[in-house]
Design goal:
The structure is a homodimer.
Chain A (H helix, E strand, L loop, with lengths): L2 E5 L4 H12 L3 E8 L7 H11 L4 E6 L37 H16 L3 E3 L15 H14 L1 H5 L5 E3 L7 H10 L24 H13 L13
Parallel strand pairs in A: 1-2, 1-4, 2-3, 4-5
Helix pairs in contact in A: 1-6, 6-7
Chain lengths: 231, 231
């Protein structure tokens, strides 16, 4: 079985991505980050999902992105609520964390190199998403090109690293249906940027908005209990 | 004064790079990494150099690259000694740390974004060097291209991030002469991969080899005291 590193936040998209990698025959090394995010509870979801989906290993890297600041996910800045983040003209939201996906992918690339894995899975999406620059297809292609110049394997021509983004062009409803077909247990996942102290999702942040919209459009019931009812 | 993030290991090259950035009028934000390196003492050199060269700030990010392993700089693997690492045919040495420069540059990019800085300085060199893939010009160009797709500024067209590599095509002797002309205090720097418990450089690892050769060819005395005499 080929090995793959799978970035895993514990949310719906990364869980679906891991399930796809497993279905496609990869031995999966799940990688999560404790980066100072206010929704740190997602790491418990990541551990549950990695276990349920049969990851060969799950590692959590500690890095402190609060050191640089600049995001509502790591700083004491209010998380936007009650809007569709995918609507045109909103620009890049304050929940964008500078360089986050580049840092995550760089660590994934390091692990892939020592595992001699040729594949890194990341559940980025450029359809029902928040407009983060580091989720767009051109960014992913540029990262892959850079990665293949950065590493021992790329230089020696032994292997080539592929950044796999199977969810890139799916709507959130399509992701929900795909996840259901792959047997992802939605109860194990966590998507909310601003959960209450008990870990329940707010239902109103950009991430909850997209998730709820996706389940509604897919005609599938989201088993999570939100603190806010759908407006 | 424009701001710049300057990667600073505390070695000769990064100190020279910081001195150049200061001379060229940048307000410098020095960034170092405590990544599990066996020559962790270089961080003390980085702090001394940042202070002596007037960095506006110096931050040390803790990341644990021992988590993935695969290098003599982070694992219990012997550091090669007594050879010229720039000689042809040696391949990529065991001191190569997977994805290290990509991880360092990704953090630098994050800080640059929150500082609204357009410049990142890195003292990579592709002449008298150890053949690390992530020191080559093609890698740096690919990273810069990726970085400008990854960030808010690059997307909004406000600024463009430049990865500045002023030492890329200089020999080590040229770097030594440049450093001397910029007033870099060589006593403050640390280059050795395998210092003794008192922090004295071994004189025989790849990094010491290149440094000593550079000073000899430049006709300048290296003030460091090496534990091994020059063979």
């Amino acid at each position: 079985m080929p090995k793959a590193v799978c970035l895993l936040s514990g949310g719906l998209d990364s869980a679906t991505c891991l399930a796809l990698a497993r279905r496609d025959g990869f031995q999966c090394y799940a990688l999560s980050f404790d980066y100072g995010q206010r929704h740190r509870i997602e790491l418990e979801a990541a551990a549950r999902v990695a276990g349920a989906l049969g990851a060969a290993e799950h590692r959590i890297v500690r890095i402190d992105l609060r050191l640089f600041g600049g995001s509502a996910l790591t700083d004491d800045i209010a998380v936007p609520k009650g809007r569709d983040p995918a609507q045109p003209g909103l620009g890049i939201p304050i929940t964008y964390v500078p360089a986050r996906n580049t840092i995550f992918l760089a660590f994934a690339m390091a692990w892939a190199e020592t595992l001699e894995a040729c594949d890194v899975f990341i559940g980025v999406n450029a359809v029902d998403y928040s407009g983060y620059p580091d989720c767009r297809p051109a960014y992913i292609a540029a990262f892959q090109r850079m990665a293949n110049l950065a590493t021992r394997a790329g230089v020696e021509g032994r292997t080539r690293l592929r950044i796999r983004t199977p969810l890139l062009r799916l709507s959130k409803a399509e992701i929900v249906r795909l996840a259901a077909s792959l047997g992802v247990d939605f109860r194990l996942t966590h998507s909310c940027y601003d959960p209450d102290p008990a870990g329940r999702p707010c239902g109103e942040c950009d991430s909850c908005f997209l998730r709820r919209k996706g389940f509604e459009e897919a005609g599938i019931r989201d088993p999570l209990e939100y603190t806010a009812s759908r407006g």
